[in-house]
Each structure stands twice: as structure tokens, then as C-alpha cells.
Design the sequence.
């Protein structure tokens, strides 16, 4: 007789087992881990110095010496992609941290207070949301000049209303629940209930939204760098690499292909990771088995 042991899916072991069965999560995790590893390695090693110009080697195609070829200044494109990954991830990560750190408390507070406070915060939230990251970056750089810091601020400001909306919607769905009523009856304040009960119950929602905004942050950073509003030369950036390649598509198409593929693969990996996390931690998906 063969014994079949069912692992409860609400335990850590059950969640881990479900993660290993989720193709989207595994694929997204592997892609994201490889991109992160490449970015971390770039801090200590790259095949070539990305700030060194070797005009004699300009616009060379793929070879054993330069796997992804060289650009119009003779710089190794693989090395530039590695360093560009570091910059893109750093900008997107800090920007998401700003959006989550400010937006989540605002959304949770609005849901807890309700009434005029909720209405006022959401109208201000809508006003901020009306200004996309690109427009915010143009206004900021017009005042303080272009740079990675200003790009972070612009993307972070754009993320605040996104997380505020998500946190508020999730919190509003939690507040009518029975255990919240029990916590109120026990004399807990709105702040205590929010911290001890509401936020833990919407953590999964915020985590999934965080991965989505992380991917969008990388796209936004690439777009800002493409327009010259992000990281400034000689620091490589995927968006800046695409800008440099646009006039050389015929003679050196690899200058656009490889950084473009880096952006696409990174965003795809983060989106798959987010979908996988949502599927693994969503209780509704368990009943579909």
C-alpha cells in the first residue's frame, strides 16, 4: 500500500511546494536572480572598463573578445549592460521603496479614517497621479538638472499614488471583517488595528504590486535615460545605450539589440515573478486544484 501525504498549503512547506510547481514563479525567479547576480557582479568585475574609450575597436560585432560587440566608442557592450543593470535596478528599487513607504501608510490611513479625510487624501492622490513620471522628471530636471537622483525622485513620486490606491482598496476590504470588529470590541485603536491586522492581510497584495512597479520602474528609468534625464555619461544606462544606437542601426544593430533584450527580459522576469507570487499566495487558487 502506498501512503499519500498531503502537505497543507497554508504552511510554509506547503507554500514552498506550491512555488516549485508554479512555472511562472520558477521562470520569473530564475530570470530575476540572474539579472540581480549580474548587477552585483558588476560592482567587483566586468570584462572591460566601461569608462575606457578604445576608438580602434569601435562598432565591432560579436566575437570571442567582445561577446556582444562594441559601441561607437569601442566600449564593450556586455560590460555596459552589466553596469546598466546595476543602475536600473538601483533606481527602480529606491523609487519603489519611496512609493511604498509613503503610499501604503497614506492609503491605510485613508481607509481607517474614512469620511472627509479619506476623500481629501484620495483627491490629492488623483492630482499627483495625473502627472506621469516622465512629466515629473522634466519638471524636476528643469529645476535641479538631469541625473539618477532626480529620476529616482520622479519615479518615486509617481509610485506613491499607485501604492496608496492599492493599500486603500485592500484595507477597505479588510475593515468589515469579523476579526476587525472583535479587535475594536477589545478596545484597540484604529492605528493598532491597521498595523496588527490590516497591513499583514494586504501584504501579499502589496508584494505583487511591488514587483509590477519594480518592472515599470526599470522601464521608466530606461525611458528617462533615453531622453537624457536619467543617469549621465560616462555611467552606462540601458536607455542611454538605446539612444546612442538609434543613429547606428544599420552599421551596428547589436548596439540596440542587446540592451533592448536586457530590458525586455528583465521586465518579463519581474512580471512572471509577480504573477507567480500572486498565484501561490492567493487562497482562491488553492480551491481550483
Sequence:
Amino acid at each position: 500500500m502506498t501512503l499519500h501525504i498531503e502537505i497543507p498549503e497554508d504552511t510554509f512547506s506547503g507554500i514552498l511546494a506550491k512555488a516549485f510547481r508554479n512555472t511562472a514563479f520558477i521562470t520569473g525567479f530564475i530570470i530575476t536572480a540572474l539579472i540581480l547576480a549580474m548587477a552585483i557582479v558588476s560592482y567587483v568585475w566586468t570584462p572591460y572598463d566601461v569608462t575606457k574609450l578604445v576608438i580602434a575597436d569601435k562598432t565591432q560585432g560579436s566575437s570571442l573578445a567582445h561577446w556582444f560587440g562594441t559601441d561607437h566608442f569601442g566600449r564593450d557592450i556586455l560590460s555596459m549592460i552589466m553596469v546598466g543593470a546595476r543602475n536600473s535596478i538601483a533606481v527602480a528599487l529606491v523609487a519603489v521603496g519611496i512609493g511604498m513607504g509613503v503610499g501604503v501608510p497614506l492609503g491605510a490611513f485613508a481607509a481607517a479614517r474614512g469620511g472627509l479625510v479619506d476623500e481629501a487624501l484620495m483627491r490629492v492622490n488623483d492630482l499627483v497621479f495625473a502627472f506621469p513620471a516622465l512629466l515629473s522628471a522634466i519638471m524636476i530636471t528643469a529645476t535641479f538638472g538631469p541625473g539618477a537622483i532626480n529620476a529616482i525622485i520622479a519615479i518615486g513620486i509617481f509610485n506613491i499614488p499607485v501604492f496608496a490606491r492599492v493599500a486603500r482598496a485592500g484595507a477597505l476590504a479588510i475593515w468589515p471583517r469579523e476579526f476587525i470588529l472583535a479587535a475594536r470590541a477589545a478596545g484597540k485603536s484604529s492605528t493598532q488595528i491597521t498595523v496588527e491586522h490590516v497591513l499583514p492581510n494586504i501584504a501579499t497584495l502589496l508584494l505583487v504590486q511591488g514587483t509590477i512597479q519594480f518592472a515599470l520602474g526599470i522601464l521608466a528609468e530606461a525611458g528617462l535615460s533615453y531622453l537624457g534625464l536619467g543617469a549621465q555619461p560616462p555611467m552606462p544606462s540601458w536607455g542611454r545605450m538605446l539612444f546612442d544606437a538609434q543613429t547606428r542601426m544599420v552599421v551596428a544593430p547589436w548596439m540596440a539589440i542587446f540592451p533592448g533584450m536586457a530590458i525586455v527580459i528583465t521586465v518579463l522576469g519581474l512580471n512572471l515573478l509577480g504573477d507567480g507570487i500572486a498565484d501561490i499566495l492567493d487562497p482562491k487558487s488553492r480551491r481550483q486544484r
Observations:
- Confidence is low (pLDDT under 50) at residues 1-9, 285-289.
- The two ends are 24 Å apart (CA to CA).
- DSSP finds twelve helices and no strands in the chain.
